Write the structure tokens for this entry.
Amino acid sequence: MIKHYSADYILPVSSAPLPNGVVSVNETGEITGIYSHNSPETQKFAIERLSGILTPGFINSHCHLELSYLENKVDRGLGLIRFIETVIGFRKMSFNGQVGAAMKKADETMQNNGIVAVGDVCNSSVSRDVKKNSSLFYHTFVEMICFEPEKAGDILRDYIGIKEEFEGPNVSLSPHAPYSVCKDLFRYLNKYSHENGDILSMHNQESEDENKFYRYKTGGFVEFYKRLGRDIDFFKPQARNSLQSILPLFLSNQRIVLVHNTYTSLKDLYFARRFGHDIFWCFCPKANLYIEGKLPKIELFLLNDLNITLGTDSLASNDTLCILSELKTLASHYPAIPLVTTIGWATLNGARLFNIAGQYGSLEIGKKPGLNLITHTDGLSLTERSEVRRIA
Ligand SMILES: [Zn+2]
């Protein structure tokens, strides 16, 4: 049976907003029609009138399901390095049954919050069954951490083993961050990813210490490795920011989602443009505020017309897994960026990143993208009270 919905606005994303438009969806969730408010065809429909904005289902481009058990356990404002040390500390403790239950709850939370697809970073295969049994689409990034050149070859083999535990095509190996992956591993991974056509994900410039580490080999990460008792003599200062040092290690055309970008400069963006990589820039504003209390210079990315997506990061650095909540944070800190722009980041751009735009990301006939109602809106803007409800 086909249902017909109208709302203050319909945002198909791939086409212009339709004030008081109508969207039709069948019982399988497939979009069967999209109409402007004065379309004669809609005269014969029984239309359910809704208050708010109808959008496609949201794509969460960056999450760590396996850290869900850390909800409410990590203090705010630690700064990235103390945050990492705190998470490492928790990982040494035993949480027995909590990890699985927390992941299942997080998966349900995302479904309830209108998320339909997730880019999920993991360090083990512990999240495999939750993902397998979920109605959400998952692309899994098996995240590699190794800042010891002599171990890089073995580490790659170990992680390929974890990758193989996730069945199907939607899994790839990925580097954690420039400060935690040595050049040797980047090179091995680059070759492997290129041969397999893999999408990569990497945390990028989440703290200023990362740039200091690469430019001068000073700052918090030098101390961090000292505290770990790690000899990093092999690492030489690069006299340029981390991103500019790492990008040349990837072959051209490599698709890569760079996550956070809090300390990415205009110069970094110009540098990135010179190489032919297929870069997506993922922002996780609430996690940035949680950990560092600072947001990226998003206006620089707009000037350069880049592929932008949104993520929640994990419950270790967020109070919930909700893309609408990220959109509200953007709206309050960057009021000049219209919702029609940020909704594109939260939907179609994420779908393109994961090669799933044939089904997800926009309201188009024949797709099954999910249908969200955002309530308590003001015209085409969000308000503090805006909430999301899944319609289909
Ligand atoms: Zn992350």
